[in-house]
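Lab notes, practical 5.
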Amino acid sequence: MSRIALVTLVVRDYDEALAFYRDALGFELVEDTDRGDGTRWVVVRPRGSAPGTGLLLARAKDGDQSRAIGAQTGGRVGFFLHTEDFAADHARMTAAGVRFLEEPRHETYGSVAVFEDLYGNRWDLLQPAV
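Output from the prediction step:
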């Protein structure tokens, strides 16, 4: 085994999730395939990231899955988005309406700020220290 290829993120609606990850976070759409049964295979990834690495946006199919939306990591930061230009990406994301839960911090490991996606999942925007 050489890598994790996809991580599933349960979402309420394909199009609203795609709009957030593409437009607010700047991700690229890798695949959007109709599976013929009302479901789609929707994969996004940060622009410039390695091929084969991304998020599978999966629409909730039932009540149990719907209740997991936004709480897939129990309220902890569950996703870590690395950047090479923290200040520029933080400003761009803020202008796009991304909700940051804190002011940027400069730690020994890098510059970081926690934000929420449109469902409340917590992410770190992180520029690792060199």
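Observations recorded by the TA: Residues 46 and 91 are 17 Å apart (CA to CA). The mean pLDDT is 95.
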